[in-house]
Amino acid sequence: MATTVHMEALSPTMEEGRLVKWTKQEGDPVKTGETLAEVETDKAVMELVARADGSLVKILVPEGKTVPVGAAVAYIGAPGEKVSDASTAAPAARPVVSSPSVTSAPAPPASPVPTPADATRVKASPLAKRMAREAGVDLRLVTGSGPGGRVTKRDLEAAGTQPAAVSSTPLPTPHIPPAVAVRSGAPYEDVPLTQIRKTIARRLVTSLGPIPHFFLTTEVDMERAAEARAALNKELGDQGKVSFNDIIVKATALALTRHRACNAWFQEDHIRYWNEVHLGMAVAVEDGLITPVVRNADQKSLSQISVEARALADKARRRQLKPDEYTGATFSVSNLGMFDIDQFTAVINPPEAGILAVGTVVEKPVVLEGQVVPRKRLRLTMSCDHRVIDGATGAAFLKTLKQMLENPLAMLL
After folding, report:
1. pLDDT of 158-195, one tens digit each?
2. CATH classification of 3-160, choosing from 2.40.50.100, 3.30.565.10, 3.40.228.10, 3.60.10.10?
3. Which of 23, 114, 188, 247 is the most exposed place for a label (fewest CB within 10 A)?
4. What is the fold, at CATH topology level, of the domain defined by 196-412?
5. Distance CA 349, CA 281 (A)
6. pLDDT at 112
7. CA-CA distance, 218 to 224, in Å (whole number)?
Protein backbone atom coordinates (compact mmCIF):
# COMPACT_ATOMS: atom_id res chain seq x y z
CA MET A 1 0.00 0.00 0.00
CA ALA A 2 1.36 3.41 -0.98
CA THR A 3 2.60 5.84 1.69
CA THR A 4 1.29 9.40 1.49
CA VAL A 5 3.88 12.18 1.57
CA HIS A 6 2.50 15.16 3.49
CA MET A 7 3.58 18.78 3.67
CA GLU A 8 5.36 18.76 7.03
CA ALA A 9 5.77 21.60 9.52
CA LEU A 10 9.43 22.32 8.83
CA SER A 11 9.64 25.36 11.12
CA PRO A 12 7.96 26.25 14.43
CA THR A 13 5.72 28.90 12.85
CA MET A 14 5.01 27.22 9.51
CA GLU A 15 1.36 26.92 8.47
CA GLU A 16 1.82 26.34 4.74
CA GLY A 17 4.66 25.69 2.33
CA ARG A 18 5.48 26.40 -1.30
CA LEU A 19 6.96 23.60 -3.41
CA VAL A 20 10.06 25.28 -4.85
CA LYS A 21 11.53 22.23 -6.58
CA TRP A 22 11.05 18.47 -6.75
CA THR A 23 14.47 16.81 -6.42
CA LYS A 24 12.91 13.41 -7.23
CA GLN A 25 10.65 12.75 -10.19
CA GLU A 26 7.85 10.23 -10.66
CA GLY A 27 9.30 6.75 -11.02
CA ASP A 28 12.54 7.56 -9.18
CA PRO A 29 13.56 5.17 -6.37
CA VAL A 30 13.66 6.75 -2.91
CA LYS A 31 14.95 5.73 0.49
CA THR A 32 13.94 6.92 3.93
CA GLY A 33 15.70 10.19 4.72
CA GLU A 34 16.39 11.15 1.09
CA THR A 35 15.37 14.62 -0.05
CA LEU A 36 12.18 14.63 -2.12
CA ALA A 37 11.62 18.36 -2.57
CA GLU A 38 12.72 21.83 -1.54
CA VAL A 39 10.03 23.77 0.31
CA GLU A 40 9.84 27.49 1.02
CA THR A 41 8.57 28.02 4.56
CA ASP A 42 7.82 31.34 6.22
CA LYS A 43 11.51 31.70 7.13
CA ALA A 44 13.78 29.64 4.89
CA VAL A 45 14.09 26.96 2.22
CA MET A 46 13.95 23.53 3.82
CA GLU A 47 14.16 19.94 2.61
CA LEU A 48 11.13 17.64 2.59
CA VAL A 49 12.47 14.13 3.11
CA ALA A 50 11.05 10.66 2.44
CA ARG A 51 9.54 8.72 5.34
CA ALA A 52 9.44 5.38 3.51
CA ASP A 53 11.38 3.29 1.00
CA GLY A 54 10.08 2.60 -2.48
CA SER A 55 9.40 4.61 -5.60
CA LEU A 56 7.92 8.09 -6.03
CA VAL A 57 4.84 6.81 -7.83
CA LYS A 58 2.86 10.05 -8.02
CA ILE A 59 3.42 13.79 -7.49
CA LEU A 60 0.26 15.63 -6.43
CA VAL A 61 1.54 19.22 -6.06
CA PRO A 62 3.40 20.94 -8.91
CA GLU A 63 6.41 23.19 -8.39
CA GLY A 64 5.48 26.72 -7.38
CA LYS A 65 2.20 25.79 -5.66
CA THR A 66 1.51 26.56 -1.99
CA VAL A 67 -0.35 24.06 0.19
CA PRO A 68 -1.18 23.95 3.92
CA VAL A 69 0.75 21.85 6.42
CA GLY A 70 -0.68 18.32 6.47
CA ALA A 71 -1.77 18.33 2.82
CA ALA A 72 -0.84 15.32 0.65
CA VAL A 73 1.85 16.23 -1.89
CA ALA A 74 2.96 12.84 -3.27
CA TYR A 75 2.86 9.05 -2.87
CA ILE A 76 5.67 6.56 -2.28
CA GLY A 77 4.93 2.95 -3.19
CA ALA A 78 6.10 -0.06 -5.10
CA PRO A 79 7.38 0.55 -8.65
CA GLY A 80 4.43 0.79 -11.00
CA GLU A 81 1.86 0.86 -8.16
CA LYS A 82 -1.36 2.71 -8.97
CA VAL A 83 -2.71 5.23 -6.45
CA SER A 84 -5.92 7.17 -6.07
CA ASP A 85 -6.27 10.74 -7.25
CA ALA A 86 -5.32 13.55 -4.88
CA SER A 87 -8.97 14.42 -4.41
CA THR A 88 -9.59 11.12 -2.62
CA ALA A 89 -6.60 11.37 -0.33
CA ALA A 90 -7.53 12.08 3.29
CA PRO A 91 -5.65 15.09 4.64
CA ALA A 92 -3.42 14.48 7.61
CA ALA A 93 -3.37 16.47 10.79
CA ARG A 94 -0.68 19.08 11.09
CA PRO A 95 2.42 17.70 12.83
CA VAL A 96 2.95 19.23 16.25
CA VAL A 97 5.76 21.76 16.49
CA SER A 98 7.37 23.54 19.39
CA SER A 99 6.16 27.10 19.83
CA PRO A 100 8.88 29.78 19.57
CA SER A 101 7.32 31.40 22.62
CA VAL A 102 8.54 28.50 24.76
CA THR A 103 11.65 27.02 23.21
CA SER A 104 14.23 27.75 20.60
CA ALA A 105 14.45 24.12 19.59
CA PRO A 106 13.59 23.41 15.95
CA ALA A 107 10.43 21.58 15.01
CA PRO A 108 10.85 17.86 14.33
CA PRO A 109 10.15 16.60 10.83
CA ALA A 110 8.01 13.82 12.27
CA SER A 111 5.54 11.89 10.22
CA PRO A 112 1.99 13.28 10.40
CA VAL A 113 -0.63 11.50 12.48
CA PRO A 114 -4.33 10.89 11.72
CA THR A 115 -6.86 13.35 13.05
CA PRO A 116 -8.76 11.95 16.06
CA ALA A 117 -12.35 10.92 15.39
CA ASP A 118 -13.56 13.34 18.05
CA ALA A 119 -11.24 16.32 17.59
CA THR A 120 -13.22 18.49 19.96
CA ARG A 121 -12.35 16.37 23.01
CA VAL A 122 -8.76 15.54 23.90
CA LYS A 123 -7.56 13.28 26.69
CA ALA A 124 -4.56 14.90 28.33
CA SER A 125 -2.93 15.13 31.73
CA PRO A 126 -3.32 18.46 33.60
CA LEU A 127 0.41 19.13 33.18
CA ALA A 128 0.24 18.45 29.44
CA LYS A 129 -2.73 20.81 29.11
CA ARG A 130 -0.83 23.57 30.90
CA MET A 131 2.30 23.02 28.81
CA ALA A 132 0.26 23.07 25.60
CA ARG A 133 -1.55 26.25 26.64
CA GLU A 134 1.74 28.05 27.39
CA ALA A 135 3.33 26.79 24.17
CA GLY A 136 0.35 27.58 21.96
CA VAL A 137 0.15 23.93 20.84
CA ASP A 138 -3.16 22.44 19.70
CA LEU A 139 -3.57 19.20 21.67
CA ARG A 140 -5.90 17.83 18.99
CA LEU A 141 -2.86 17.47 16.75
CA VAL A 142 -0.76 15.49 19.23
CA THR A 143 -0.75 11.69 19.36
CA GLY A 144 -0.96 10.57 22.98
CA SER A 145 1.10 7.65 24.27
CA GLY A 146 -0.81 7.26 27.54
CA PRO A 147 -3.74 4.96 28.29
CA GLY A 148 -6.55 5.40 25.78
CA GLY A 149 -4.48 7.86 23.73
CA ARG A 150 -4.02 10.27 26.65
CA VAL A 151 -1.52 13.06 25.85
CA THR A 152 1.28 13.30 28.41
CA LYS A 153 4.18 15.62 29.16
CA ARG A 154 6.47 13.19 27.34
CA ASP A 155 4.43 13.52 24.13
CA LEU A 156 4.86 17.30 24.12
CA GLU A 157 8.56 17.17 24.99
CA ALA A 158 9.15 14.73 22.11
CA ALA A 159 8.38 17.52 19.66
CA GLY A 160 11.83 19.10 19.85
CA THR A 161 14.25 16.19 19.39
CA GLN A 162 15.35 16.37 15.77
CA PRO A 163 16.53 19.37 13.76
CA ALA A 164 14.85 19.97 10.44
CA ALA A 165 17.01 19.62 7.36
CA VAL A 166 18.10 22.86 5.71
CA SER A 167 18.62 23.17 1.99
CA SER A 168 21.92 24.53 0.73
CA THR A 169 20.22 25.68 -2.47
CA PRO A 170 19.51 29.42 -2.54
CA LEU A 171 15.87 30.43 -2.79
CA PRO A 172 14.86 31.61 -6.26
CA THR A 173 14.54 35.38 -6.33
CA PRO A 174 10.91 36.31 -5.63
CA HIS A 175 9.07 38.47 -8.10
CA ILE A 176 9.26 42.01 -6.77
CA PRO A 177 8.02 44.89 -8.97
CA PRO A 178 10.74 47.32 -10.06
CA ALA A 179 11.06 50.64 -8.24
CA VAL A 180 10.25 52.47 -11.48
CA ALA A 181 6.91 51.50 -13.01
CA VAL A 182 7.13 49.77 -16.39
CA ARG A 183 4.30 50.78 -18.71
CA SER A 184 2.84 47.50 -19.95
CA GLY A 185 -0.62 48.69 -20.85
CA ALA A 186 -2.15 47.22 -17.67
CA PRO A 187 -3.30 49.66 -14.96
CA TYR A 188 -1.80 47.53 -12.15
CA GLU A 189 0.03 44.30 -11.34
CA ASP A 190 -0.99 41.71 -8.73
CA VAL A 191 1.94 39.93 -7.09
CA PRO A 192 1.19 36.88 -4.87
CA LEU A 193 2.39 37.12 -1.27
CA THR A 194 5.53 35.17 -0.48
CA GLN A 195 5.53 32.93 2.57
CA ILE A 196 7.66 35.36 4.58
CA ARG A 197 5.44 38.31 3.66
CA LYS A 198 2.35 36.35 4.76
CA THR A 199 4.00 35.68 8.11
CA ILE A 200 4.98 39.33 8.55
CA ALA A 201 1.42 40.42 7.86
CA ARG A 202 0.02 37.90 10.34
CA ARG A 203 2.55 38.77 13.05
CA LEU A 204 1.92 42.52 12.73
CA VAL A 205 -1.81 41.98 13.22
CA THR A 206 -1.13 39.96 16.38
CA SER A 207 1.30 42.61 17.65
CA LEU A 208 0.14 46.17 17.07
CA GLY A 209 -3.53 45.42 17.71
CA PRO A 210 -3.53 43.36 20.93
CA ILE A 211 -0.28 44.74 22.42
CA PRO A 212 -0.52 48.18 24.10
CA HIS A 213 2.65 49.80 22.75
CA PHE A 214 4.27 52.91 24.16
CA PHE A 215 7.54 54.48 23.04
CA LEU A 216 10.57 56.03 24.76
CA THR A 217 13.26 57.97 22.88
CA THR A 218 16.68 59.10 24.05
CA GLU A 219 19.71 60.64 22.31
CA VAL A 220 23.16 59.24 22.97
CA ASP A 221 26.59 60.84 22.60
CA MET A 222 28.61 58.30 20.62
CA GLU A 223 32.02 60.02 20.63
CA ARG A 224 33.65 57.62 23.10
CA ALA A 225 32.01 54.61 21.49
CA ALA A 226 33.39 55.74 18.11
CA GLU A 227 36.87 56.11 19.61
CA ALA A 228 36.66 52.67 21.23
CA ARG A 229 35.46 51.14 17.95
CA ALA A 230 38.34 52.70 16.01
CA ALA A 231 40.89 51.42 18.56
CA LEU A 232 39.37 47.92 18.53
CA ASN A 233 39.36 47.70 14.74
CA LYS A 234 42.96 48.85 14.61
CA GLU A 235 43.86 46.09 17.05
CA LEU A 236 41.86 43.46 15.17
CA GLY A 237 43.36 44.35 11.80
CA ASP A 238 42.41 41.76 9.19
CA GLN A 239 40.68 39.54 11.77
CA GLY A 240 37.39 41.41 11.38
CA LYS A 241 35.73 44.71 12.09
CA VAL A 242 33.42 45.76 14.92
CA SER A 243 30.44 47.87 13.87
CA PHE A 244 28.35 50.33 15.85
CA ASN A 245 25.58 47.74 15.71
CA ASP A 246 27.83 45.17 17.43
CA ILE A 247 28.53 47.66 20.22
CA ILE A 248 24.82 48.43 20.60
CA VAL A 249 23.96 44.70 20.72
CA LYS A 250 26.56 44.11 23.44
CA ALA A 251 25.50 47.16 25.47
CA THR A 252 21.81 46.24 25.15
CA ALA A 253 22.48 42.71 26.34
CA LEU A 254 24.42 43.93 29.38
CA ALA A 255 21.77 46.54 30.21
CA LEU A 256 19.10 43.83 30.11
CA THR A 257 20.97 41.85 32.78
CA ARG A 258 20.52 44.86 35.07
CA HIS A 259 16.90 45.43 34.11
CA ARG A 260 15.36 41.97 34.07
CA ALA A 261 11.86 43.42 33.86
CA CYS A 262 12.59 44.37 30.24
CA ASN A 263 13.99 40.94 29.36
CA ALA A 264 10.62 39.25 29.54
CA TRP A 265 7.75 37.58 27.67
CA PHE A 266 4.05 38.17 28.15
CA GLN A 267 2.39 34.73 28.48
CA GLU A 268 -1.37 35.37 28.89
CA ASP A 269 -1.67 34.30 32.55
CA HIS A 270 1.90 35.05 33.65
CA ILE A 271 5.05 36.99 32.76
CA ARG A 272 8.22 35.04 32.06
CA TYR A 273 11.34 36.90 33.25
CA TRP A 274 14.42 35.53 31.53
CA ASN A 275 17.74 34.91 33.29
CA GLU A 276 19.41 34.51 29.88
CA VAL A 277 19.73 37.22 27.22
CA HIS A 278 19.04 36.12 23.64
CA LEU A 279 18.97 39.15 21.35
CA GLY A 280 16.94 39.13 18.15
CA MET A 281 18.63 41.11 15.39
CA ALA A 282 16.27 42.32 12.67
CA VAL A 283 17.69 41.67 9.18
CA ALA A 284 16.08 42.94 5.99
CA VAL A 285 15.83 40.31 3.24
CA GLU A 286 14.67 40.85 -0.31
CA ASP A 287 11.00 40.16 0.34
CA GLY A 288 10.62 40.92 4.03
CA LEU A 289 12.27 40.80 7.43
CA ILE A 290 13.63 38.06 9.67
CA THR A 291 15.16 38.19 13.14
CA PRO A 292 18.08 35.80 13.76
CA VAL A 293 19.09 35.44 17.40
CA VAL A 294 22.46 36.06 19.06
CA ARG A 295 22.24 33.73 22.04
CA ASN A 296 23.72 34.65 25.43
CA ALA A 297 24.83 37.95 23.92
CA ASP A 298 25.74 39.35 27.35
CA GLN A 299 28.43 36.67 27.75
CA LYS A 300 30.08 37.17 24.35
CA SER A 301 32.89 39.55 23.42
CA LEU A 302 32.43 42.26 20.81
CA SER A 303 34.52 40.31 18.32
CA GLN A 304 32.42 37.18 18.89
CA ILE A 305 29.20 39.16 18.44
CA SER A 306 30.63 40.74 15.28
CA VAL A 307 31.49 37.39 13.68
CA GLU A 308 28.23 35.71 14.72
CA ALA A 309 26.01 38.64 13.69
CA ARG A 310 27.54 38.76 10.22
CA ALA A 311 27.22 35.01 9.76
CA LEU A 312 23.58 35.04 10.85
CA ALA A 313 22.74 38.01 8.63
CA ASP A 314 24.35 36.28 5.65
CA LYS A 315 22.40 33.07 6.27
CA ALA A 316 19.21 35.10 6.67
CA ARG A 317 19.67 36.79 3.29
CA ARG A 318 20.31 33.40 1.67
CA ARG A 319 17.22 31.97 3.44
CA GLN A 320 19.29 29.25 5.10
CA LEU A 321 18.60 29.89 8.79
CA LYS A 322 17.67 26.88 10.90
CA PRO A 323 14.63 27.22 13.19
CA ASP A 324 16.80 27.39 16.31
CA GLU A 325 18.65 30.36 14.78
CA TYR A 326 15.58 32.61 14.53
CA THR A 327 13.40 31.59 17.50
CA GLY A 328 13.65 32.17 21.23
CA ALA A 329 14.72 35.84 21.36
CA THR A 330 14.07 37.53 24.72
CA PHE A 331 14.45 41.09 23.32
CA SER A 332 15.13 42.50 19.84
CA VAL A 333 17.12 45.26 18.17
CA SER A 334 16.19 46.82 14.82
CA ASN A 335 18.79 49.07 13.19
CA LEU A 336 18.01 51.32 10.19
CA GLY A 337 21.03 53.55 10.66
CA MET A 338 22.65 52.25 7.49
CA PHE A 339 19.71 53.74 5.56
CA ASP A 340 20.33 57.20 7.05
CA ILE A 341 17.18 57.00 9.18
CA ASP A 342 17.48 59.36 12.14
CA GLN A 343 14.67 57.92 14.28
CA PHE A 344 11.81 55.40 13.99
CA THR A 345 9.58 53.13 16.08
CA ALA A 346 9.69 49.35 15.75
CA VAL A 347 6.85 46.87 16.26
CA ILE A 348 7.23 44.44 19.16
CA ASN A 349 7.71 40.80 18.19
CA PRO A 350 5.47 38.83 20.60
CA PRO A 351 5.87 37.32 23.11
CA GLU A 352 8.81 39.68 23.72
CA ALA A 353 8.00 42.75 25.80
CA GLY A 354 10.29 45.23 24.05
CA ILE A 355 12.30 46.13 20.98
CA LEU A 356 14.96 48.80 20.43
CA ALA A 357 14.91 50.91 17.25
CA VAL A 358 18.34 52.28 16.32
CA GLY A 359 18.87 55.29 14.07
CA THR A 360 21.99 56.52 12.31
CA VAL A 361 25.08 57.91 14.03
CA VAL A 362 25.25 61.49 12.80
CA GLU A 363 27.46 64.46 13.62
CA LYS A 364 25.47 67.32 15.16
CA PRO A 365 26.25 70.69 16.75
CA VAL A 366 26.04 70.23 20.52
CA VAL A 367 26.58 72.63 23.41
CA LEU A 368 29.42 71.22 25.54
CA GLU A 369 30.82 73.23 28.45
CA GLY A 370 29.37 76.42 27.01
CA GLN A 371 30.77 75.82 23.52
CA VAL A 372 29.03 74.62 20.37
CA VAL A 373 31.01 71.64 19.09
CA PRO A 374 30.36 68.81 16.61
CA ARG A 375 29.56 65.49 18.31
CA LYS A 376 28.50 62.07 17.04
CA ARG A 377 24.93 61.48 18.19
CA LEU A 378 22.52 58.53 18.04
CA ARG A 379 18.79 58.29 18.68
CA LEU A 380 17.33 55.18 20.28
CA THR A 381 13.60 54.47 20.57
CA MET A 382 12.32 51.65 22.74
CA SER A 383 8.90 50.13 22.05
CA CYS A 384 7.42 48.68 25.25
CA ASP A 385 4.56 46.31 25.99
CA HIS A 386 2.73 48.20 28.75
CA ARG A 387 1.37 44.91 30.14
CA VAL A 388 4.94 44.07 31.17
CA ILE A 389 7.00 47.27 31.19
CA ASP A 390 5.96 50.51 32.88
CA GLY A 391 7.24 53.90 31.77
CA ALA A 392 9.73 54.27 34.61
CA THR A 393 10.99 50.71 34.06
CA GLY A 394 11.70 51.32 30.38
CA ALA A 395 13.25 54.70 31.13
CA ALA A 396 15.62 53.17 33.68
CA PHE A 397 16.75 50.57 31.15
CA LEU A 398 17.41 53.25 28.51
CA LYS A 399 19.35 55.31 31.04
CA THR A 400 21.65 52.38 31.76
CA LEU A 401 22.06 51.66 28.05
CA LYS A 402 22.88 55.30 27.36
CA GLN A 403 25.51 55.35 30.13
CA MET A 404 27.19 52.27 28.69
CA LEU A 405 27.32 53.68 25.17
CA GLU A 406 28.54 57.10 26.29
CA ASN A 407 31.20 55.52 28.49
CA PRO A 408 32.15 52.08 27.06
CA LEU A 409 34.25 51.32 30.15
CA ALA A 410 30.96 51.06 32.03
CA MET A 411 30.42 47.76 30.22
CA LEU A 412 33.29 46.34 32.27
CA LEU A 413 31.71 47.15 35.63
Report:
1. 643 333 333 344 444 444 555 555 666 776 677 777 77
2. 2.40.50.100
3. 188
4. Chloramphenicol Acetyltransferase (3.30.559)
5. 11
6. 37
7. 17
